Amino acid sequence: MEQRVKALPGIMLMFFLAVMVSVCGPERHPVSLVEVDSLAETNPRRAMSLLSAMAGEAASMPEDHLMYYRLLQLKAADKAYIGHTSDSIAMLLVDYYEGRGDSRLLPQAYYYAACVYRDLHDAPQALNYFQKAANTMPAGGGSRQKGHAYNQMGKLFMLQDLDSVALHYYQEAYKIESDRKDTLDMIASLCDMSVSYQRLGDLENCIRSLEAAENLNALAGLNKEYLILYRLSEVFLERGQSDSAWACIQLPLVEAPDFDKSAVLSVASKASLATGRLDSAYVISKELLKVGSIYAKQTAARVLAEVCLRQGRLADVVHYINMYKSFSDSVSVLDARRAMANANALYDSRFVRSRICSLRLKNAITS
């Protein structure tokens, strides 16, 4: 007994040293950067501000700290919905974390590289890195970011009109989110799944997905009602039920956050025109010209031309038709890039081909 008691101080010392090594070791990052990493999830603009304030000292950071700093710059910008314009930093980070960096950060390096290529409209590269991110994330479906990777892949396939494949990835994301009981992400994936079902002509499952999203939102007391109503408005509009579409879009017009404004205003613009609310259509479409994506601005110009035509303002009709043509030219260039990305993703990316073949095989077995 006395020997065991005497041994305790030695054991405690060894334990203390082991803890100190783990805390102060080369893979331990500065507390200031770890705090910014956490802040980027909830307040990315503030995280970007803090990173900018650290710019002066970044040059003198050790390499592992500097690379982490750069990774956080990509993360904060992405979380703030600021489009990436170059892949140079992303590729530097991938090269570093694949080689000698903290391997725990490799999935993040892949994920944000994928986000960069998504913003650059390079679908094959984006899909490649999202898949790499998913493959290197923890097993067992416990990673939130793994669910996000699958969701982003679904959106990319949706842009390429591969609706069945997109649905598959939305469902994979939903499984992970369900395992994690992440209600917020589950609602988002259900709404995304409803888009796929709608485009596939499966109205029953489209509505079921939105009903499930609404039930989750009500049970959890979340504020995602606007997202579900926005999707319902899209469904009603496609089915020619313009009054219902207009009714559903009212709450989203008030509550949608900035990053969803373009999509919401686009639907509201079309719904207001379809219901004969010309003044509303004009005001909404003018706002859409300020904040919308290139596709949304194309919609706005078309609606404004129609409003002015119905009101007999012929000079304004010509103005908005010319604007529509200009936006259409830009859309054509973007669509051409996506068509090339579509071809590359189908024929040059082995993992995409294997997924499609797998889906076709399952469909053949069940049909």
Look at the helices and sheets and give the structural class. Answer: mainly alpha
Kindly state the mean pLDDT as a whole number?
Answer: 85
Radius of gyration: 25 Å
**Shape category:** globular
Write down the oligomeric state: single chain
Give, in order, the helices and strands: HHHHHHHHHHHHHHHHHHHH
> What about the largest sheet?
none
| Termini gap | 73 Å
Overall strand count: 0
Number of helices, where a helix is a run of at least 4 consecutive DSSP H or I residues: 20
Helical content stands at over 70%
Spans of at least 5 consecutive residues whose pLDDT stays below 50 are 1-8, 11-26, 343-356
Strand residue content:
under 5%
Write up this protein:
The protein is mainly α and 367 residues long. Helix 2 packs parallel to helix 5. The N terminus is likely disordered.
At a glance:
The chain is built from 20 helices and no strands.
Give the topology, please.
Blueprint: H1 2-24, H2 31-42, H3 44-53, H4 55-58, H5 63-79, H6 88-99, H7 106-119, H8 123-136, H9 144-159, H10 163-180, H11 183-199, H12 203-220, H13 225-238, H14 242-248, H15 250-255, H16 258-274, H17 278-291, H18 294-310, H19 314-347, H20 350-366
Keywords:
disordered N terminus; 82% helix; 367 residues; 20 helices; mainly alpha
